[in-house]
Amino acid sequence: MISQGIFFCLATYLFGSVPFGKLIANRVAGIDITTQGSKNIGAANVAREVGRGWGAITLLLDMLKGYIPVVLYANVGVPSGDGYTVGLSWVVISAIAGHQFSIFLKFKGGKGVGTAAGSYLALSPLACLIGVILFMVILYKWDFVSLGSTVSASAMPLLLASFGQAQPLVIASALLAVLICLKHWGNFKRMLNGEERKWRERWR
């Protein structure tokens, strides 16, 4: 059973490592998205540099990196109980680790927000919905995608705990919040220096 879990986590990491944003930008616009705009492979940068529709497709694909492994893990016959939730926690971490530290990008990658959202959608749709609403409220109020993303990610441990998710999953979500915040460190510094461009300004 342990070997099965290790194999599943490895497969999840490899799937999470697929840089959909980079592949789409190269195929559609002939550009290397890692050298354009914020240089991030995520949906927001693809939307700005290639088009909103392609950004939406990138977001969907990145979410599937987190959603599909969680759903599959729940259907591979793994016994329920503590072992199951611990294993599932590692699956969630593996998906985001793949996106943030892609083996196909020399262990660089995106910020993991979309992939984390996909995992949370599979784990607890209601908690995910509240997280999305929180993101939208912050984006509307302050107009910073990075701020909305990090606050929502940081709220997920409390939301998952409130909706009865097991402790290992709550701990995993706290780890993901730390990783996502660290990936946004440059955004935080730019916000403090007044250099971070607001979302609506990018479409003028």
Describe the protein:
- Helix content is 72%, strand content 0%.
- It contains 10 helices and no strands.
- It has helices at 2-17, 20-29, 43-49, 52-73, 82-100, 113-123, 125-142, 145-162, 167-183, 185-192.
- α7 (125-142) packs antiparallel against α8 (145-162).
- The N and C termini lie far apart (54 Å).
Name the descriptors.
204 residues, 10 helices, globular, single chain, mainly alpha
Topology:
Elements: H1 2-17, H2 20-29, H3 43-49, H4 52-73, H5 82-100, H6 113-123, H7 125-142, H8 145-162, H9 167-183, H10 185-192
What's this model, at a glance?
The protein has 204 residues and is mainly alpha-helical. The chain contains 10 helices and no strands.
Beta-strand residue percentage = under 5%
Span of the ends, CA to CA: 54 Å
How many structural domains? 1
Main sheet properties: none
Low-confidence stretches: none
H/E element order? HHHHHHHHHH
The helical percent reads over 70%
Number of strands: 0
Classify the secondary structure makeup into a structural class: mainly alpha
The radius of gyration over CA amounts to: 17 Å
Shape: globular
* SS element count, helices: 10
Mean pLDDT: 91
